[in-house]
């Protein structure tokens, strides 16, 4: 039987890490991606590394009710690409994506569908699935996205120890296929009826008093890996003020740059709640900056407060 390799791509990890490289923040909405070309480059790299043809690309993402949106549907129609969708929960978090990746790794290894599995992810939760696939005689290689310095971004130490090898995605594959989203044109205010887009002064008035959201989630979601620093590590807000400001400003700038007028109005109208994707980017970026897995509540509250302040200043 002909030997093959296979690609397993955690889209949440791929795009968040690529966004960090391109924009400095993990906010997916801040980037635009040439998906067919990016997938072709990943396939090409896997074949060059292994010396084997790629049997199939497994593309793991999430969608409302696990129903693909227009863009996901187009990706699923690409040659040799299998679309595998989890759900987006009421809290905006992905559900079932990691489970699908893990089950596929184990099932495909048992059925000997390929000799080498390339996994584009840094997720700690995949460690046991990787080890079980190896028991079945498959080599598992982690293909990590590089940050701006070329260093693998957000790969769990447990996953790294379990895998047979760590490779880094070719930097040119990211740089030529992932770009900062163009600035959204905004209408110039004219005499007459008041513009529907809030001015910086109006935004500042609305965010003057910020109450932190009642929910609390881990700073690092399972789709982005985990840091080696214990979750019990405690960092004072005062000692991290510069890092908090830097993260809040980058995310606020990315939101203002990429959001449509309607999106910006909705974000402001929903204060103090922050959209789940934006809040996730804030937490992930600060967690990455501080190298702490679980951010304490004072850090979270201050981070969200500074985000609103910088959004107003924009």
TrEMBL record:
Where the record annotates domain NYN, the positions are: 6-166
The name this protein goes by in its record = Uncharacterized LabA/DUF88 family protein
Extract the GO molecular function terms from the UniProt entry. RNA nuclease activity
InterPro entries reported for this sequence: NYN
